[in-house]
Automatic annotation (TrEMBL):
Matches recorded under PANTHER family: GLYCOGEN PHOSPHORYLASE, GLYCOGEN PHOSPHORYLASE, LIVER FORM
Domain of life, source organism: Eukaryota
Reactions that this protein is recorded to catalyse: [(1->4)-alpha-D-glucosyl](n) + phosphate = [(1->4)-alpha-D-glucosyl](n-1) + alpha-D-glucose 1-phosphate
Organism expressing this protein natively: Urocolius indicus
UniProt protein name: Alpha-1,4 glucan phosphorylase
Record family assignment: Belongs to the glycogen phosphorylase family.
Keyword Cell inner membrane: no
Length: 740
């Protein structure tokens, strides 16, 4: 048709239906589950507006609505035949036959199905996203028949449930609409799962009493963080109130069905719903949660008599300052398996955050280190590197990434070293052209591309990177003749719209960029770019072009990280703290092949005991003092000298993430980075060692571990015959068991 495929791809909108790592992880998991031949479904909400589009105006973040469905979505298929009702509000009647939830408001859940193809195996799974619809008699069955027009306009109130994604990453905002969204996806999904279970040959046994006995053997439900935690009381409500199962049997089935993945240890991110809100919106669920809690606390009291503090710590209900439901505690009590997402994180979960629970049932706690799909994050985004690897070790590594270890044989192969460097250079030139087109800045493609892309958050310490930029700038100005390894520093990411400090950090980075990029004394030695509207499609462009990956969170705060893995697989070197999956990356590649710096978890704990005093570092480190004084004096904001006073005040008086404490080690480590970059061959050899060690971080490996250790299903390597071939041969080999 004379159309350019790449041009066509550029036109398609991202489905930005998540905030950051959590949503992207789910997408990688769906790809791996299909590729491993698992009968798995991904359930979520079909938001009409996804994560906002970020515009930078005068250095500030400005949000615009993400109207991603404006031109339609060719990949989805509406399934009105599977529409289901979801109930809200109302009251509970206790009758002779049990509890009844009555006088509720009904919203319909309309499913949209998107196919999820496995890699070259003819398996296609389903992602089912729910959209909210008002019933046709909405507001018309009441007494207000008079105002028909208003009644129809009010349908929006019901349909607002799936209107927009809450844009917070690692932060809990206890809004009623958000709780409605969480229950909406849970209630629709559980009805769907039970309908499918009853329709299958496993569900149709004669004796009514044992209908659900096989449920946990046929259905596994993985809770991706606590956001779908209401699934636990909802499944109990279905079993007890509707299916009339005895409580203990229902609870046993429920626990064996659910497993919970914890994704963060930041206290401000943990969901704690006010009891009065839950009572208003979901009165029956609150009663069930109280019942679960009572039985749970009775059990604890029998094991630890007179230990009231333990009861308080382990309760699902937190007292004081308004009663709240701790959703993580609900998930732990209601699941048969709990996991963190990297070794260090799972240890912190066990020994600190949920210590009481882990002492009680240590066998429930596991680790499942995150991974990324090599299909999107190598083949699709970096075809040059993927092909180069295939020439050396064959094409099988795409489905078995552990085969990358074979690249160790070529670490000293001069031709291979040159080819790896060449692919990187081509990617950099291509991205430099993109930057020049989008940002009208001239980029030196031979400079080191130093990239820090992720959600803007204090714990991720974009501020520390910013202080390093200022330090490099000051060194260039102090001694313009001194050898300086040229860098293009690229920082990108979205700040939650209500997160003042994160927005100030974006403004500061842009203010510093303005000064650095326009100083003739600096020239092409240092360029700073804030990458606007960072998203998956932009990650696919910047990651293959990166030389240095910044993974510099305070030790103990980043649960895993997955961007770190994407950079490693695409031939970037990592500068990072011993946090999240960085620890395992260093373990796989050898610590000498990453630039590791700064406090370990133990050091952070120790510093907390002593008391962190920022002032002390400021007075001891002249370059830090100079950088801070410049920000404070208005050097980067001459028209508004005290623009960054909030940032400065935070850094000195309430910096939970201890930027100053790691500054010196970070700057010294960056000097080692520059030194190695001067030796192109040594740099590229280190790159090859990293790629060769990246195999562990495939989401295929992660999903195999979930399948075997938690869901109890076996991955299948069988390639299903395509529709145009007879299938009787494969028919009896189909494995039983479903993971939902």
């Amino acid at each position: 048709l004379g159309l350019d495929m790449e041009e066509l791809e550029e036109i398609e909108e991202d489905a930005g239906l998540g905030n950051g790592g959590l949503g992207r992880l789910a997408a990688c998991f769906l790809d791996s589950m299909a590729t491993l031949g698992l009968a798995a479904y991904g359930y979520g909400i079909r938001y009409e507006y996804g994560i906002f589009n970020q515009k930078i105006r005068d250095g500030w973040q400005v949000e615009e609505a993400d109207d991603w469905l404006r031109h339609g979505n060719p990949w989805e298929k509406a399934r009105p035949e599977y529409m289901l009702p979801v109930h809200f509000y109302g009251r509970v009647e206790h009758t002779a036959t049990g509890a009844k939830w009555v006088d509720t408001q009904v919203v319909l859940a309309l499913p949209y199905d998107t196919p999820v193809p496995g890699y070259m195996n003819n398996t296609v799974n389903t992602m089912r996203l729910w959209s909210a619809r008002a019933p046709n008699d909405f507001n018309l069955r009441d007494f207000n028949v008079g105002d028909y027009i208003q009644a129809v306009l009010d349908r929006n109130l019901a349909e607002n449930i799936s209107r927009v994604l809450y844009p917070n990453d690692n932060f809990f905002e206890g809004k009623e609409l958000r709780l409605k969204q969480e229950y909406f996806v849970v209630a629709a999904t559980l009805q769907d799962i039970i309908r499918r279970f009853k329709a299958s040959k496993f569900g149709s046994t004669e004796s009514v009493r044992t209908v659900f006995d096989s449920f946990p053997d046929q259905v596994a439900i993985q809770l991706n963080d606590t956001h779908p935690a209401m699934a636990i009381p909802e499944l109990m409500r279905i079993f007890v109130d509707i299916e009339k199962l005895p409580w203990n049997k229902a609870w046993d089935i429920t626990k064996r069905t659910f497993a919970y993945t914890n994704h963060t240890v930041l206290p401000e991110a943990l969901e704690r719903w006010p009891v009065d809100l839950v009572e208003k919106l979901l009165p029956r669920h609150l009663q069930i949660i109280y019942e679960i809690n009572q039985k749970h606390l009775d059990h604890i009291a029998s094991l630890f008599p007179d230990d009231v503090d333990r009861l308080r710590r382990m309760s699902l209900i937190e007292e004081g300052g308004g009663k709240r439901i701790n959703m993580a505690h609900l998930c732990i009590v209601g699941s048969h398996a709990i996991n963190g997402v990297a070794k260090i994180h799972s240890e912190i979960v066990k020994t600190q955050v949920f210590q009481d629970f882990a002492e009680l049932e240590p066998e429930k706690f596991q680790n499942k280190t995150n991974g990324i799909t090599p299909r999107r994050w190598l083949l699709l985004c970096n075809p040059g590197l993927a092909e180069l690897i295939a020439e050396k070790i064959g094409e099988d590594y795409v489905r078995d990434l552990s085969q990358l270890t074979k690249l160790h044989e070529f670490v000293d192969d001069d031709l291979f070293i040159r080819e790896v460097a060449k692919v990187k250079q081509e990617n950099k030139v291509k991205f430099a052209l993109y930057l020049e087109k989008e940002y009208k800045v001239k980029i030196n493609p031979s400079s080191m591309f130093d990239v820090h892309v992720k959600r803007i958050h204090e714990y991720k310490r974009q501020l520390m990177n910013c202080l390093h930029i200022i330090t490099m700038y000051n060194r260039i100005r102090r001694d313009p003749t001194r050898l300086f390894v040229p860098r293009t520093v690229i920082i990108g990411g979205k700040a939650a719209p209500g997160y003042h400090m994160a927005k100030m950090i974006i403004k500061l980075i842009n203010a510093v960029a303005q000064v650095v990029n326009n100083d003739p004394a600096v020239g092409s030695k240092l360029k700073v770019i804030f990458l606007e509207n960072y998203r998956v499609s932009l990650a696919e462009k910047v990651i293959p072009a990166t030389d240095l990956s910044e993974q510099i969170s305070t030790a103990g705060t980043e649960a895993s990280g997955t961007g770190n893995m994407k950079f490693m697989l695409n031939g970037a070197l990592t500068i990072g703290t011993m946090d999240g999956a960085n620890v395992e990356m260093a373990e796989e590649a050898g610590e000498e092949n990453l630039f590791i710096f700064g406090m370990r978890v133990e050091d952070v704990t120790e510093l907390d005991k002593e008391g962190y005093n920022a002032q002390e570092f400021y007075e001891r480190l002249p370059e830090l003092k100079q950088a801070i004084d410049q920000i404070k004096s208005g050097f980067f904001s001459p028209n508004e000298p005290d623009l960054f006073k909030d940032v400065i005040n935070m850094l000195f008086h309430h910096d939970r993430f201890k930027v100053f404490a790691d500054y010196e080690a970070y700057v010294k480590c960056q000097e080692k980075v520059s030194e190695l970059y001067l030796n192109s061959k040594a740099w590229t050899k280190m790159v090859i060692r990293n790629i060769a060690a990246a195999g562990k971080f495939s989401s295929d490996r992660t999903i195999k571990e979930y399948a075997r250790d938690i869901w109890h299903v076996e991955p299948s390597d069988l390639k299903i015959p395509p529709p145009n071939e007879p299938r009787d041969a494969a028919e009896d080999k189909t494995p039983n068991g479903t993971a939902a």
